[in-house]
Structures are given as structure tokens and as C-alpha cells.
UniProtKB/TrEMBL annotation, chain A:
Belongs to the CCDC47 family. It comes from Littorina saxatilis. GO terms for cellular component: rough endoplasmic reticulum membrane. This is PAT complex subunit CCDC47. The lineage of its organism: Eukaryota, Metazoa, Spiralia, Lophotrochozoa, Mollusca. Keywords: Membrane, Signal, Transmembrane, Transmembrane helix. Residues 461-475 have a biased composition (Basic residues). Residues 40-81, 95-118, 418-475 are annotated as: Disordered. Residues 1-20 form the signal peptide. GO terms for biological process: endoplasmic reticulum calcium ion homeostasis.
From TrEMBL, chain B:
Its main location: membrane. GO terms for molecular function: protein folding chaperone. The lineage of its organism: Eukaryota, Metazoa, Spiralia, Lophotrochozoa, Mollusca. GO terms for cellular component: endoplasmic reticulum membrane. It is found in: Membrane. Residues 1-11 have a biased composition (Polar residues). PANTHER family: CGI-140, PAT COMPLEX SUBUNIT ASTERIX. The chain crosses the membrane at residues 41-70, 82-99. Belongs to the Asterix family. Residues 1-31 are annotated as: Disordered. It comes from the Eukaryota. Keywords: Membrane, Transmembrane, Transmembrane helix. This is Protein Asterix. One of its GO terms (biological process) is protein insertion into ER membrane.
């Protein structure tokens, strides 16, 4: 609409200019027409230039409207009578009283229309929603669509994970209730809760069970895939992964004999041996040939006796049957978690607990269904079986003594390293203190300086004297 | 060695008098997966870039980062932090469009 108005205005202007070029209506000669002709050409060129400068669909319209104007002028040339009548017709356009700012129009139009130079165009300030198309915002639409897709995937992934977790719980609930007095405590409230599957994040669920002989408690962590994160989903297309279930059985103190043992898939074994403090300190890689195990497994053991006791026929059968689903079994009386990644040696010995850790992979390689959870029941039964075995297992006297010696050695090594570090730290502190004293002395005035020097010297003397006195006393 | 296949048949191993309450582990969290923290930080960095340098794409990336951070967050984490990062990224987008309402130009 605005464009049409503009066009109308321009045409009106053009007509006005024609009239201004010819102030006397009666004056009709070829020169005038020649003028008109020139003017027509100029007008034509100016109009087309304007059309070029404002590139939109109205261009053909302008040109079309310019053409009838031109045609009109040509008619004027040919027929005098018509010209006169047309002059009369356009007389009202020259009437000053008719138009407001008439002079201004006259004055400004030659500027814009006359001359060879290009007119100085001022773009009208058209509001944005009239000017731009929504199509030009296609990138923004893409972004919003992407966010929408992410959100939808979040909801879908969250629901799927939740369904898998509840499927696992419902499949194993009776077995757990037969073994524990409390299944599903979340630590809140005065009384222990029952049946609470804690949601640690959208893909990690935890279940705490307690109240069993020889066992302090059992924490089952369902480490499902991040189905709620689209980025992770796309990464898994390139690198498939699977859901994991980690069962951590904390034994009561003194209910587990002193040994460290692990059987794991080769990759996992290498990683555990490197990362886990206790496995790195106490175990060595052992051969699986002696045992009826699939070749994909690796044994890390401290004593052969423990290995023999744990890897009995039944356990080997289960390991063979569920080859690939059992990631690792880590039994340790010195479990303290992974090695510290910090460079500095910790000054305190890490707290150790007797733990049995089982890591199972859910079948389906990422595309698990709730029904797959049912097939993992035998693995939980294996957990209880091994728990019972460990609680009853007793090392022979020699093996136990060796184990104790080894643990003492490790502790001493640790204390030495910690002690040397503490000594270094103390030395550094002493040096810094001396330096600070010196600096303070330098800043002080003379009498004070002297006093302080005296004090320090006295102190040093006392220190030097004291140990000697002690030695004499002992002697 | 006893060869009992299943846990117990005749003896009940449950000990209702030996119940230990669950203690939430707080230190294990950051070690496992630092994604939500990184994404939170990235989101804030991109929002600031978008606001200061008037870069629309930076503001949009910030929105994505805060979404990813939210999706990966743990329930134990403070929601206020997540929400503030999200609000910052939204404000970055809105401010960039208010300052220059033209659509984003693709790099090609």
C-alpha cells in the first residue's frame, strides 16, 4: 500500500514538473515540445534509475505508469487542441492555493529530477515487520527447531530410562527382599524407608539395601545411558555403549579375610589395575588357563589360594554363560577407591573398607528393553553366592601372615613417603619464617634491631643446647 | 567350602537389627562426570560473548549449552545455578535481536 502511495506521489510530482517547465499555458511551440521531449527522456531515465535503486516488485509498475505519462506527453505534441485542453486540465495543478508547499515542490523537484547526477535518495523508514519476510529468518527457525528436537529427545530418553530402572527393580525385588531387611532406603527421615529407588540424575538410579548377616549394606547403581542428552545419543551412534549395573556390597569389619582379587574382561582389567589403589598395590596378573574361564577374562590376584576358592565350578559356569555381560568382579578387604589424580602424596592413609564390587552390562548393547532386566536375575544371585562364600572363606595361616606382612609394608611405604613430604613442608615453612624475620629486621630501626638480634640469638642457643642436654640425660 | 548355590533356603540371612542407613556420597559426583559444570561454564562464556560482541550465533550456542547442562545435571545439584545460566543465555539472545533485528547471516 505504501509503495503504491509513493508511486502516486512520484507521478504527481512528474506532472507538476511538466507544468513548471511551461509556466505560460498559451505558449505552445516546438521548442516547448522539444523541452518536453528532453524532459520526457530525463524523466524516463530518472524514473528507471529510481526503479533500479529501489529493487522491488513495484518496478514494472512504475515503468508502466511512466509509460502512459510519456504517451500522454507525446499526444500533447501531436494535437494542439488536445494540448490546450490538457493544459487547461492541468491548470489546477499550478494553482498555489490548491496545493500546500507548492513552491517547495517546484523548488525541490528540479533538484531531484534535473541534471545528470544521480538523485540523493532517502529510504523511507518502513517498520521492520513490513519490510522483512519471515523467510529470511530461516536460521533462527532452524535453531528453535533444534531446541525443540532436543527437548523432545530429553523427554523420550528420560521416560525410557525411568522405565528400565523400574523394570529392573520389579524383576529383582523379591530376591532382594529375601536377602535384606531393608530394600530401598534413601537416608532421609527418621525411620528407614522401603522401596525407594533414588534418582541421582536422569540416567543414574541407586538402591540401598541393608540388614543382612555379614553385610553392612549393598548399593546398587543403575548407570544407564544418557538417553536424555541428544549429543550423547549422536555420539553413541559412532561409539556404541551399554547400560551398566554396579553392585557394591560393603562387608562388615572382620567378616572378610585379608585378600584382594579381581576377575575382569581384559580391557577392564587393565584399567582397574592402573586406576584402583588396592589392585595396583596388592595384585598381579594371573593366567586364566588353570581355570575354566573364557579367554576374554583376566585374573588379578594377590594369593592363588583366594583365586582357587573364589573361582569354583559354579562361578566359572556363570562367567562362561554370561561371557561379556560380567564386566568385572572386584573383591577386596582394602578397597579405597581409585588412585588420587593429584600429584601430591596424601598425608593420611586412605580409609579402607572390605568391599565386593560387581559390574554387569545390560544385554542389548544400548538398545535395552525392560524385558532384558529380567534376564539379569542370575547375576544378582551370583552376587549373593559370592558374598556368602567370602564371608565364610578363611585363608590358610601362611597366606594370612603373608597378606598381613604385605599390608604392613605398603603402610610403611606410604608413611615414609608422607613423612618425607611432611618434613619437606616443615623445612620450607622454617625457611620462610627465617626470611620473614630477616625482612622485618631490615625494616626496623637501630635499637629495635639490636634487641631483636639478641632475642634470636638467644633462641638459637637454647635450641642448640636443649638436644645436647637430652642426650646427656639418656646417657 | 560350602556349595550352597542360592543364598539361603532354610536360614534367613536378613538381620533387621543390623540396618545401616544410606549415606549420600557427595565427593564421587564431580569425579564421575564433569559435563554439567563444563557446559554451564561454556554457556555463560558464550552468553557474555553474545552480549558484549553482539554475536547472535554465540547467544544461540549459549542456549544450547545450558540445555545440555540441564539434561546432564544431577538431582543433588543446585537448580538455581542451572536456571541462572539458562536465563542469561535467553537474555543474550533477546538482547542481540533487540540491538540488531536482522536475521542471522550464515557463514557460507
Amino acid at each position: 500500500m505504501n509503495r503504491l502511495l509513493l508511486l502516486g506521489l512520484l507521478c504527481g510530482l512528474a506532472v507538476v514538473l511538466v507544468k513548471s517547465a511551461n509556466p505560460h499555458d498559451a505558449f505552445v511551440e516546438d521548442n516547448d515540445f522539444a523541452e518536453f521531449e528532453e524532459f520526457d527522456e530525463e524523466e524516463g531515465t530518472v524514473i528507471t534509475e529510481e526503479a533500479v535503486k529501489q529493487p522491488d516488485a513495484s518496478q514494472p509498475q512504475r515503468e508502466a505508469e511512466a509509460e502512459p505519462a510519456d504517451a500522454g506527453f507525446e499526444d500533447e505534441e501531436e494535437e494542439d487542441g488536445i494540448i490546450e485542453s490538457e493544459d487547461d486540465e492541468f491548470e489546477h495543478l499550478q494553482d498555489e492555493e490548491e496545493f500546500e508547499n507548492f513552491d517547495k515542490e517546484k523548488g525541490s523537484s528540479p533538484k531531484t529530477k534535473g541534471g545528470e547526477k544521480l538523485p540523493d535518495l532517502q529510504m523511507a523508514k518502513v517498520p521492520l515487520h513490513l519490510r522483512t519476510n519471515w523467510d529470511s529468518f530461516y536460521l533462527e527457525m532452524l535453531m528453535i527447531a533444534g531446541l525443540g528436537v532436543y527437548f523432545l529427545n530429553f523427554l523420550a530418553g528420560k521416560t525410557k530410562n525411568s522405565r528400565l530402572a523400574t523394570a529392573w527393580l520389579s524383576a529383582h525385588k523379591d530376591l532382594l527382599e529375601a536377602n535384606f531387611a531393608i530394600v530401598g532406603d534413601d537416608g532421609t527421615g527418621k525411620e528407614p524407608n522401603q522401596g525407594v529407588l533414588m534418582k541421582e540424575s536422569e540416567n543414574i538410579y541407586a538402591l540401598w539395601c541393608s540388614g543382612r548377616s555379614c553385610v553392612e549394606g549393598m548399593l546398587v547403581e543403575l548407570k544407564l545411558l544418557k538417553r536424555q542428552d541428544l549429543v550423547n545419543v549422536l555420539l553413541r551412534v559412532l561409539k556404541p555403549a551399554a547400560d551398566q549395573i554396579v553392585v557394591n556390597v560393603t562387608m562388615e569389619d572382620k567378616k572378610m579375610d585379608k585378600f584382594v582379587f579381581a576377575v575382569a574382561l581384559k580391557k577392564a582389567a587393565a584399567r582397574l589395575h592402573k586406576d584402583m589403589y588396592d589392585l595396583g598395590q596388592f595384585t598381579e596378573k594371573k593366567n586364566v588357563d588353570k581355570y575354566d574361564l573364557p579367554p576374554s577374562y583376566q585374573i588379578l590376584s594377590e594369593t592363588g589360594e583366594a583365586t582357587l576358592a573364589i573361582l569354583d565350578k559354579k562361578v566359572c559356569q556363570v562367567l562362561t554363560k554370561f561371557d561379556g555381560l560380567i564386566e568385572y568382579i572386584h573383591l577386596s578387604d582394602q578397597f579405597s577407591g581409585p588412585k588420587s589424580t593429584e600429584d601430591t602424596q596424601p598425608t593420611k592413609l586412605p580409609t579402607v573398607k572390605p568391599c565386593l564390587i560387581f559390574c554387569f552390562t545390560v544385554p542389548g548393547k544400548g538398545k535395552s528393553r525392560p524385558a532384558d532386566m529380567e534376564s539379569m536375575r542370575p547375576l544378582l544371585q551370583l552376587v549373593f553366592y559370592i558374598t556368602e562364600k567370602v564371608s565364610r572363606f578363611q585363608l590358610s595361616r601362611e597366606a594370612r601372615l603373608k597378606g598381613e606382612k604385605r599390608r604392613q609394608k605398603v603402610e610403611e611405604q606410604f608413611m615414609k613417603a608422607a613423612h618425607s613430604q611432611r618434613q619437606e613442608a616443615a623445612q620450607l615453612r622454617r625457611e620462610e619464617k627465617i626470611r620473614a624475620d630477616k625482612e622485618r629486621l631490615m625494616a626496623e630501626e637501630d635499637p629495635d634491631k639490636a634487641r631483636k638480634l639478641e632475642e634470636r640469638e638467644n633462641r638459637r642457643e637454647m635450641k642448640r643446647k636443649q638436644p645436647k642436654m637430652k642426650m646427656m640425660k639418656i646417657n | 567350602m560350602s556349595t550352597v548355590p542360592a543364598p539361603v533356603n532354610n536360614n534367613d540371612v536378613r538381620r533387621p537389627n543390623k540396618i545401616t542407613r544410606y549415606k549420600a556420597q557427595s565427593t564421587g559426583g564431580p569425579l564421575d562426570d564433569p559435563t554439567p559444570e563444563y557446559m554451564n561454564l561454556l554457556g555463560m562464556v558464550f552468553s557474555m560473548c553474545g552480549l558484549m560482541m553482539k554475536l547472535k550465533w554465540s547467544a544461540w550456542v549459549a542456549v544450547y549449552c545450558s540445555f545440555i547442562s540441564f539434561a546432564n545435571s544431577r538431582t543433588s545439584e543446585d537448580t538455581k545455578q542451572m536456571l541462572s545460566s539458562f536465563m542469561l543465555s535467553i537474555s543474550a539472545v533477546v538482547m542481540s535481536y533487540l540491538q540488531s533485528p536482522q536475521p542471522m547471516m550464515p557463514p557460507w
